[in-house]
Amino acid sequence: MSESGRAYIDGTWCGPVDGGLFEVRDPATGTVFGTVADAGPAEARAAVDAAARALPGWRGLPAPQRADKLRAVAAVLTRRADEIARTMTREQGKPLAEARAEVLSGAEHMLWAAEETRRLYGETVPASSTGSRIWLLPEPVGVVAAITPWNFPLSMVTRKVGPALAAGCTVVLKPSELTPFSALAFAEACAEAELPAGVVNIVPTTRPAELTEVFMSAPQVRKVSFTGSTRVGKLLIKASADDVKRMSVELGGHAPVLVFPDADLAKAAAGVARAKFYNAGQACTSPNRIYVHASVVEEFTELLAARTAELPVGNGLADGTRIGPLINVAAVDKVTAHVTDALDRGAKLRTGGDRPAGGAYADGSFHTPTVLAGVTDEMVVSRDETFGPLAPVLTFESDEEVLARANATSYGLAAYLWSRDLGRVIRTAEELQFGMVSVNGGTFAPPQGPFGGVKGSGYGREGGHHGVEHYLDYKYLAVELDG
Q1: Is residue 469 annotated as a catalytic residue, yes or no?
Q2: Among 188, 284, 385, 462, the one annotated catalytic
Q3: Domains located in the chain, CATH noted
Q4: Gyration radius from the chain CA atoms
Q5: One of 98, 108, 250, 385 is an active-site residue; which one?
Q6: Is 3 an active-site residue?
Q7: pLDDT class of 25 with cuts at 50, 70, 90
Q8: Distance CA 258, CA 393 (A)
Q9: I need a labelling partner for 464 at 20 to 30 A (CA). Which of 8, 20, 131, 306 fits?
Q10: CA-based diameter of the chain, in Å?
């Protein structure tokens, strides 16, 4: 990829009218990785107009032909996986193996969406008389504005754009200003796959509020899909009311883990470490409160700390790195603040807890993977999402107690439980007030699964047939045969 990125509007690569650029920095070194065109309101309006012009042709394209285009995009992503992964690691920091897996996951989401294109069935509803008919016809909601975060800068794009295109919508995408090159790589894949001009438009910017104002005020935009902070999500929901736009919002999380005394502790520790430290803990589904039964907490914590201590920290491009840098210094400062608060309140450090210093770490935003024991509900980490490589271990005595504590949060995205008692698993999963529950290591990543949360974590689903349905309206057609 070029180290100078431009917006992609109406099938053309272009810069902003004011010629503005912004820098993207490598979080492992602090150096400038590349420069990107800083799109403004004029480019946002042009992108919306292009998407609106392209909508009739795209929605009218027969489903098998739309599916072929989505498969072609997936093929380009797969073929260029190594190249795009390297770009992602340089701008986001995650280990190269994780970046490559994300590119391939993005391709899988496009393939799943391609198959769903062929399954957008209507319905025939039994009518009330022999002379009438009732049909439901699926139709694309229209132009979609998609806003994606930095932590999964390609897969979050495909999880929004794929279903939207499958439904027959056209898209304007604003990626995070911290990781625009991954999104622009997706635009390159769309161009190479010869998607019609205007079907996908991407506008990188450092002025998200200005572009969002264009999206929310444009009557052509009928749906907004947002992944990001709860604070911004609430503002968008309020702004959507003026034009009654449809919304899907995936917001923050504060995922609990429940480790019961009958769990396989070795597998539980390995599974918690895997979920906690993937992408250096920078995931909305990352475990943030690890509740372990008092009778097994010492054994579990020892296993978790031992696994954590073995995770190499370094530049994501280096062989063997398991924990890359955090996205920026502010993210490191937040982890440090949570660790300091917990230690000051009586928690015990079992491993990690510091910023690696010197050498290759000198100019990057690194923090060692950390395990804290003796964490209590009063500590900041038990209330605020850390979004970093910090695993706090708390204890509990009874099932009723841990359920109440796990549910005592405004968030409701993901939860995890470990137990070999089938009755306990079912009862606990049913009582947890979260949109997704992982049992004994189940993952939320497959494209056929409907990813999403409840409560303050948002609404709407991405993945599976549920994800495509969020981009559809159903027209109720009432017909009198002898009219």
Answers
A1: no
A2: 284
A3: 4-252+457-477 (3.40.605.10), 255-410+414-446 (3.40.309.10)
A4: 23
A5: 250
A6: no
A7: very high
A8: 10
A9: 8
A10: 84
